[in-house]
Amino acid sequence: MSAGDVTVIVPVWNRRDLLERLLRGLCSQTLAPSEVLVIDDGSEDDSADLAVSMGARAVRTGVHRGFAAAVNRGIRESRTPLLAIVNNDVELAPDWLERISAALDPAAWFATGRILQAGDRTRIDATFDALGRGAAPCRIGYGCLDGPPFQRPREIWCAPFTAALFRAALFDQLGLLDERFESYLEDVDFGLRCALAGFSGRYAPDALAWHAGSATLGRWHPATTRLIARNQVWLVAKHYHAQPLWPIFVAQALWGLVAIRHGRAGSWLRGKLDGLRQFRDIRAPASAPSPRLAEILREADLEIYRAQRACGTRNLYWNLYFLFTGGPPK
């Protein structure tokens, strides 16, 4: 791969301080991208001006429409065969782009690396995602100590859009992100679409990055909680045709208890109500369920179960989920 093959797309909504750090890291990459494209999603600071002053191209949307719309605008503006999508609250290792590009073998449509927590670089923030029978996605390894279970390359179906590389042709094949999701879980929706269509990717643990995590609003900000709660319902509406209801009920109820523990009961409830009100509008046209769907969801549950065991810690949420749903799939 040459330097002219990759456009780096950076969606931003305020926090110029984070953007400046990311852009400095991109300027220091051992493999320089063809272009850095900053999509300013209605920022109220001077993020776009900063991007231009540091050599990036800035596209100002003029209005805040969410992460999915910003990413889609970046995809439409790009002209290279490979697209790296990177959050503004990410710090990249100097060889991140070189290593993630090398992992994109001819059979892979996308690749993501090992992302550690910015606040504790001994712990995992993200590797790859899994969406199981309960429609509550799991970022595999999140919060676990970094170690051998998370340092092996492998095939994956769902890459977090925190920092990942994609073939532009993948979006021609599957379409863009679903902008109705606005922000949160739009990448999980896209990952499930990849799995159903048979488009796999690679997990490249040598491609390192560090993530602050929900740095713009905060992990349990009311808006964050509401959007995640709503979008979980929409994942069910879009994809979970003829799937067992009990795992969905258990996963969603337990996530609600977590939200309550963080003082976000109202935001969680509003999100669920918003999701249910628009359930029929989001629901895909009636058709026979994909024969792969049940298998994909079972495999994801098993992946989550194995990851929790490899982590060596007791995650109460997942322990209770597997307890009430009868354990890992057989």
* Distance separating the two termini: 42 Å
Helix content: 40-55%
* Discrete helix count: 12
Q: Proportion of β residues?
A: 15-25%
Q: In sequence order, what are the helices and strands, one letter per element?
A: EHEHEHEEHEEEEEEHHEHHHHHH
**What are the segments in which pLDDT stays under 50 over at least 5 consecutive residues?**
none
| Backbone shape | globular
Total beta-strand segments: 12
The overall average pLDDT, rounded, is 93
Alpha carbon gyration radius = 19 Å
Largest sheet: 10 strands, mixed
Q: What is the structural class?
A: alpha/beta
List keywords for this structure.
single chain; 330 residues; alpha/beta; 41% helix
Structure, explained:
The protein is of the alpha/beta class. The protein has a domain at 222-324. It has twelve helices and twelve strands. It has helices spanning 16-27, 47-53, 67-77, 96-102, 168-174, 186-197, 222-239, 245-261, 265-277, 279-282, 293-311, 316-324; strands at 6-12, 35-40, 57-60, 82-86, 90-92, 110-117, 124-126, 129-130, 138-139, 154-156, 163-167, 201-211. Strands 1, 2, 3, 4, 5, 6, 7, 10, 11 and 12 form a ten-stranded mixed sheet that branches. β8 (129-130) and β9 form a beta hairpin. The longest helix has 19 residues, at 293-311. The protein starts with 5 loop residues before the first strand and ends in a 6-residue tail after the last helix. The mean pLDDT is 93.
